[in-house]
Amino acid sequence: MSPRSARLARLSRSVTFSACHRLHSKALSDEENLKLFGKCNNPNGHGHNYKGEKLICILRIDPVSGMVMNLTDLKEFMQEAILEPLDHKNLDKDVPYFAEVVSTTENLAVFIWESLLKLLPSGTLHKVEVQETEQNVVVYKGEETMVK
């Protein structure tokens, strides 16, 4: 098959995990944290059933296997990068990354991105999407910068 006729596809896989956290910034006073984060600043924390989805960027469909990536491999990568460190954990206490980083969904998406980058073939990760609730979804695509 010539490169011109090679077929490209995106591959997506979702996982669901449960975790608790407390939105609290060490850079703010207790009063400022309560004002900024409201009930999510509860000293005892609160929990979510997160849905994590990640997409692999456009990849060539292998003409022999018919796949862009073996789904068993992708499942194992997601197990190691997402489920093992995050599922049924207190993000602030059990995940070292969040010792100094506020455990917002935005930062959770960055954590997942960085964890997957270590495991996936170079250049394959396109985006990470984390759904905290049906109304709140964060999409992270790596180090994008805003143009001022």
Automatic annotation (TrEMBL):
What keywords are assigned to this protein?
A: Lyase, Metal-binding, Tetrahydrobiopterin biosynthesis, Zinc
List the InterPro entries hit by this protein, alphabetically: 6-PTP_synth/QueD (IPR007115), 6-PTP_synth/QueD_sf (IPR038418), PTPS_Cys_AS (IPR022470), PTPS_His_AS (IPR022469)
UniProt GO cellular component terms? mitochondrion
Pathway this chain belongs to: Cofactor biosynthesis; tetrahydrobiopterin biosynthesis; tetrahydrobiopterin from 7,8-dihydroneopterin triphosphate: step 1/3
Cofactor(s) demanded: Zn(2+)
Q: Name one GO molecular function term.
A: metal ion binding
Known EC number: 4.2.3.12
Q: Which GO terms describe its biological process?
A: tetrahydrobiopterin biosynthetic process
Belongs to which family?
A: Belongs to the PTPS family.
Q: What does this protein do?
A: Involved in the biosynthesis of tetrahydrobiopterin, an essential cofactor of aromatic amino acid hydroxylases. Catalyzes the transformation of 7,8-dihydroneopterin triphosphate into 6-pyruvoyl tetrahydropterin.
What name goes with this protein?
A: 6-pyruvoyl tetrahydrobiopterin synthase
Biological source species: Climacteris rufus (rufous treecreeper)
